[in-house]
Write a structure and sequence with these properties.
The structure holds two protein chains of two kinds.
Chain A (H helix, E strand, L loop, with lengths): L1 H12 L4 H21 L4 H12 L2 H11 L3 H19 L1 H29 L11 E8 L2 E7 H10 L3 E7 L4 E5 L5 E8 L3 H5 L5 E2 L14 E4 L1 H6 L11 E4 L2 E8 L14 E4 L17 E8 L5 H16 L4 H6 L1 E6 H6 L3 H32 L1 H9 L4 H37 L14 H23 L1
Parallel strand pairs in A: 5-10, 7-9
Antiparallel strand pairs in A: 1-2, 1-11, 1-12, 2-11, 3-11, 4-5, 6-9, 7-10, 8-9
Chain B lengths: L6 H16 L2 E2 H11 L11 H11 L2 E7 L5 E7 L1 H32 L1
Antiparallel strand pairs in B: 1-3, 2-3
Helix pairs in contact in B: 1-4
Classes of the chains: A alpha+beta, B alpha+beta.
Chain lengths: ~475, ~110
């Protein structure tokens, strides 16, 4: 494969001189004429017979040319040049097509960059499909939560999960008290939290088990944004004492830049959850403090199986609740992906579907334009096929033209998508997850390129056949 | 395993290689030689010899060199390349097997009908 490519390239660069072939054919004819002359045939007749015996010289020359590996690359360039000349002759048509395509491809690419994370991209964790959100749901709280008292029960008796990690229910405001004070979002999670997601701090370390205990040593991890922004990326940030809400704490780690909380919240200071089982039966009316619980399924255990295995524990917990609450409570185990995107997925599909429809319409319009142009070019095509262009060659010419147009349209569309994404990010309601992360990268560029080729093939074939 | 040429389409190729296997020859010589060898059974238009030569040369099965003929004329001489030699052996073996098979089939057919 590679060697074939190299051969092609080599023969493309070191082209055989056409002169050699001519000389060779000439020699052949001379020999043939000479042998006939020697047999007594008059020169003119000898030449005639030799030419007949040989067959066509021009086709032979053409055939020899075609033996060269990669000879068709030359014809592709020829087609491309021809197409470009045609576009220049007809600027109105060209601009019309390009603008239509740029709009179609640009809009599709921009929307794709937004829905990609919701619909297609895996979550940024290790083996994310095995991570689940576990807990109870209530008609007033649709995201899984768990009370501290249940946590103690579940932790001791659960079977379907290999790792369990809790996080505080929501980000709360906290103040960084120092020379340069700031109000930040604070959250806490257990020492097992980062390993569950397969994340390690970009700087420093995770909480130690002894730090994740009631009245353990005061430590915090900070977000990448806080480190880079507030502390100007200070390389000596580790072990620095910072004052959060009046409590000094030592910085032990910095989270990775792209770390995303499974609840999609954003927080800058993370302290150990420091779960205290002893007090759970007394605080919060005997239920214990609320928390969010994430877990990794054991290998081979499905979400449904996990749900079945957790039912007895859940049923046991229900007994503590008053009858009115019992009716409303349900056990819920969802994959993390569902927790993060379940609510917006239908909307994302609809959005994506709409924009694909717009793209199809754009393609149809372009195909219409191409056909109108083709009708005006009947004569040209007739002449070309009269002087020997095969039907395949004419179709290839049409495809070359449409691919050139669609690639140019794709480039313009990509530039437009860049602008559109910025507008989206500005306008979008914050409920769309990951929207702030939407940007154009290689993946989106590949998508746009494929889209362009697809468009080119669609309207090219539509107009060529 | 070198790729096998399609039997019918490959026959001229085989003939060409077989011809230049004896000694380096120019195109015109090859054409004459093939006509003699095949006792005019194979009507190869002489023109179609050259694409075959070029194809074989690009495949690396035959080599070429410009030389001066005995009549003091410059001509392109072809000879069998090492890669072509291997290919020729392989093709010849295939050909033998095939013709033996067809031959025995014909003999049996002849016996049965007699």
């Amino acid at each position: 494969m590679i060697s074939e490519l190299l051969t092609r390239l080599r023969f493309l660069i070191v082209r055989k001189r056409r002169g050699e072939l001519d000389e060779e054919l000439e020699f052949h004819l001379e020999q043939a004429i000479a042998s006939r002359s020697a047999a007594g045939v008059p020169p003119a007749e000898a030449r005639r017979q030799a030419l007949i015996e040989f067959g066509g010289i021009e086709p032979t020359r053409d055939q020899c040319e075609r033996q060269r590996p990669g000879w068709w690359i030359g014809t592709v360039l020829q087609d491309a040049r021809y197409a470009l000349r045609g576009f220049r002759r007809n600027p109105l048509f060209t601009i019309g097509v390009l603008v239509t395509l740029a709009l179609g491809i640009g809009a599709t690419t921009a929307v794709f960059s937004v829905v990609d994370r919701i619909l297609f991209r895996p979550l940024p964790y290790a083996d994310p499909s095995r991570i689940v959100s576990v807990g109870m749901v209530h008609s007033l709280e649709r995201q899984e939560f768990l009370m501290g008292r249940s946590y103690v029960e579940w932790q001791n008796n659960q079977t379907p999960f290999s790792v369990f990690a809790a996080q505080s229910t929501m980000v709360h405001n906290c103040d960084l008290v120092e020379n340069n004070p700031a109000q930040l979002g604070c959250i806490s999670f257990q020492a097992s939290f980062l390993p569950l997601f397969g994340i390690s701090p970009v700087l420093g370390r995770n909480f130690l088990p002894e730090e994740d205990r009631p009245s353990g040593p005061p430590v915090v991890m900070i977000s990448y944004g806080l480190w880079k922004g507030h502390y100007n990326g200070d390389p000596h940030i580790l072990d620095r004492m910072i004052n959060v809400d009046g409590n000094p704490a030592r910085v032990v780690g910095v989270l990775p830049e792209d770390f995303q909380f499974p609840t999609l919240e954003s927080a800058d200071i993370i302290s150990p959850f420091a779960f205290n089982p002893a007090v759970q039966q007394t605080v919060n009316g005997g239920f214990g403090g609320p928390m969010r619980l994430f877990a990794r399924l054991k290998p081979g255990v499905s979400v449904a199986q996990a749900n079945a295995q957790m039912q007895p524990l859940f049923k046991g917990d229900l007994n503590w609740f008053p009858a009115s609450a019992k009716k409303e409570l349900r056990l819920s185990i969802r994959t993390l992906r569902d927790r993060e995107t379940q609510d917006v997925r239908p909307v994302a599909w609809i959005l994506f579907g709409f924009v694909l429809a717009v793209l199809l319409i754009a393609c149809a319009n372009v195909a219409g334009l191409m056909m109108a142009r083709g009708a005006g070019r009947q004569r040209e095509l007739a002449v070309r096929s009269a002087i020997g262009a095969s039907r395949g060659r004419l179709i290839r010419q049409a495809l070359t033209e449409s691919l050139l147009l669609s690639c140019a349209g794709g480039l313009a569309g990509f530039a437009m998508a860049q602008t559109l994404v910025m507008v989206f990010v500005r306008l979008a309601p914050t409920e769309i997850p990951f929207i702030s992360k939407a940007h154009l990268d290689l993946r989106i560029a590949v998508f746009a390129a494929l889209l362009s080729c697809l468009c080119g093939a669609i309207f090219g074939l539509a107009s060529a056949l | 395993m070198p790729q096998s040429t399609d039997l019918l389409q490959g026959t001229p190729d085989l003939l060409v290689m077989q011809t230049v296997a004896f000694k380096p020859m120019h195109g015109s010589g090859i054409a004459q030689r093939i006509q003699q060898l095949s006792k005019d059974v194979f009507e190869i238009g002489q023109g179609s010899l050259y694409p075959a030569l070029y194809r074989l040369e690009y495949k690396g099965w035959i080599g070429s060199e410009w030389r001066i003929t005995e009549n003091n004329r410059r001509a392109k001489f072809y000879d069998l390349a090492p890669k072509g030699k291997m290919q020729l052996e392989a093709e010849r073996a295939t050909w033998d097997r095939l013709s033996a098979a067809i031959g025995s089939e014909f003999c049996r057919g002849a016996e049965a009908s007699s």
